[in-house]
User: Fold dTDP-glucose 4,6-dehydratase from Roseovarius litorisediminis.
Amino acid sequence: MKLLVTGGAGFIGSAVVRLAVSRGIEVVNLDALTYAACLENLAPVADNPLYHFVKADIRDPDALETVFDAHQPDAVMHLAAESHVDRSIDGPGAFIETNVTGTYNLLQAARAYWEGKGRPDTFRFHHISTDEVYGTLGDTGLFTEDTPYAPNSPYSASKAASDHLVRAWAETYGLPVVITNCSNNYGPYHFPEKLVPVVILNALAGKPIPVYGKGENVRDWLYVEDHADALLCVLKNGERGRSYNVGGENEAKNIDLVRMICAILDRLKPAETPYADQITFVTDRPGHDLRYAIDPTRIRTELGWKPSVTLQEGLEKTVQWYLDNEAWWQALQARDGVGKRLGTGTSG
Ligand code: NAD
Assistant:
């Protein structure tokens, strides 16, 4: 089995690559190495003969054709994307180019390759997407795979568009696809701009811990290593043409999540005053969805997958990882344009 993983130098992609290689799967990681990439995330597999890296951009169709010809993958797992909602509000163009046109280029390259091989049933194009395509929920209800799409941010609209392209390539050309839509991930190697690392790192630095609005927004939190396990499960056992929602079964208000992290830090690295004293409410993000929550029935009943950790357990592991890996996040914070976003508040 040889996998072509796009975006494998990012947060979730690198977790997928590490897990796949540890299970004896050969992986070709295709990544353009944007600001969000970090090859250090792949240190555990860098010298493994099952791991290969190709620097390429999904906006470049010729480069994609070359990669398919050279590596002959059995399946594609497509994670490369512009992924930060706040950045999509500041500059939506890059999200259209990579998430929409880039996905189109990858579908075309995968289709030409698959057709050239005689359209094998065993081939898979696994598209990794977000629950944000469904828009927002009120106080009750859950997203199922049949919830109508209603994206509210440029990021979620670009991901929704990419999901539709993948579906259309299955319906029109017969390409064997699976799609997964997951909730907010957190865990080791999470880029320092995202909510969980912002809370940990600002707390440790004695800086204000920014929370949008009153922190009432609700998210379902999925530990990234559980997500990687779910993705490999769907790739192997998912039904061709089907979508699966992946959640952590861990709904929490942002303010409660932030308080949980502060309490863990109080225990693992006590400061003079409780870290929660640093919480500061900041002006809400425009179009900020109130609540996302996943109905995990399909993946649970059809594929027998469920998350292995609770939010408390996953956060404990995550906080400990950041305490143990200062060099990793300090190097990223020192990069141009990253540090300035710390303190702006984000919800994923
Ligand atoms: P990330 O921003 O950490 O990583 C994205 C990776 O894609 C980076 O390594 C980057 O270099 C690469 N990339 C970006 N543009 C590229 C291009 N044009 N060509 C090739 N490579 C390119 O993202 P992530 O958080 O790991 O998310 C991975 C996928 O999962 C994305 O598709 C995202 O939409 C989806 N997702 C993420 C979350 C989450 O909580 N992080 C939740 C749901 C879905």
Remarks:
- Residues 340-347 have pLDDT under 50 and may be disordered.
- The chain has two domains: 2-185+222-246, 192-219+252-287+310-341.
- The first helix runs from residue 11 to 22.
- The first strand starts at residue 2 and ends at 6.
